[in-house]
Amino acid sequence: MSGKVFLIGAGPGDPELMTLRALRMLQEADVVVYDRLVSAEVLSQHSEGARLIPVGKAPKCHTVPQDRINEILLEEADAGHTVARLKGGDPMIFGRGSEEAAYLMANDIAVEYAPGITAAQGASCSTGVPLTHRGLATSVQYVTGHRQADKVLDLDWKRLADPESTLVVYMGVANIGQIAMGLMTENLPGSTPVMAVGSATTPEERRLVSRLDQIASDVRKADLEAPTLFIIGQVVSLYAEQPMAELFEQAQAHG
Questions:
Q1: 171 part of the active site
Q2: 211 with 192: CB under 8 angstroms?
Q3: Residue limits of the Tetrapyrrole methylase domain (predicted)?
Q4: How far apart are CA 214 and CA 250, in angstroms?
Q5: Is 196 helix (H, G, I), strand (E, B) or coil?
């Protein structure tokens, strides 16, 4: 008798941000197939005796190709196991969860979902920068800052360059210069504030506040690496007003 697969959003890293549903599913699983960005604290919540299978991918380093990940999930479920497919953030936001679900359901495997707090929400809460704010941003747009197999980054710059919207860029470290140029070409001012947040909600979180025409240079100088998320828009101007921002800057100054 076939098992089933839980597609679980682990959230951005802080285990306290997991949903009760996600935690229950993880603890019911016989096998946990997990991504590179799932924190050790989250992973440690698995049931005693569960078998762990790492399938993490890094930029330009896919040690386990997506096709093989699909096969692993199918093989384990076909063996009658309850499988937790554990993904950072939310499996349905740039997580390829829908692709894996389609493959499994095409092979008659039952799939259930547990949504997760996506990195944008985690970064917003940890920094105090809202994604929408009355008078500054009436909408928010999520985009991914890279293309599979290094294809051309063909984003709709005109739509994204909306001064009344907040733009959140996932996986954009390598292409942030191109992204900034594309937005400025469509008349988004170079003075537009930008915040880069690395490893949001974890003890390794790093923050960088810049502006659109300087962000690429500032990211290089700061040596920011993935996973880093970019929040672009007037909402970033609220960061300096947050007490937590002042505490963070003081902590940085004292090493």
A1: yes
A2: yes
A3: 4-215
A4: 23
A5: strand
Catalytic entry in 14, 87, 90, 171:
171
- Cis peptide preceding 227, ω within 30 of 0: yes
Query: What is the pLDDT averaged over residues 32-39?
Result: 94
Quick one: which of 226, 199, 225 has its CA closest to 40? Answer: 199
pLDDT confidence tier of residue 146, bands split at 50, 70 and 90: confident
Region 130-135 average pLDDT: 96
Arithmetic mean of pLDDT over the chain:
91
For 73-96, the pLDDT digits (tens) are 999 999 999 999 999 999 999 999
Residues forming a β-bridge with 202: none
Lookup: tokens for 72 = 């692993």
Query: What tokens appear for 122 in the block?
Result: 């985690």
Q: Is 57 a catalytic residue?
A: yes
One of 14, 18, 25, 35 is an active-site residue; which one?
35
Q: What is the pLDDT of residue 21?
A: 98
Half-sphere exposure of 122 (CA within 13 A, CB side): 30
CATH class of domain segment(s) 4-114: alpha beta
Domain chopping of the chain, boundaries: 4-114, 119-253
Q: Which of 4, 30, 57, 213 is catalytic?
A: 57
Judged by DSSP in three states, 15 sits in helix
Q: Are 208 and 222 spatial neighbours (Cβ–Cβ below 8 Å)? A: yes
With a threshold of 0.70, does the pTM exceed it?
yes
Q: Is 60 a catalytic residue?
A: no
- Indicate the fold that domain 119-253 takes in CATH: 3.30.950
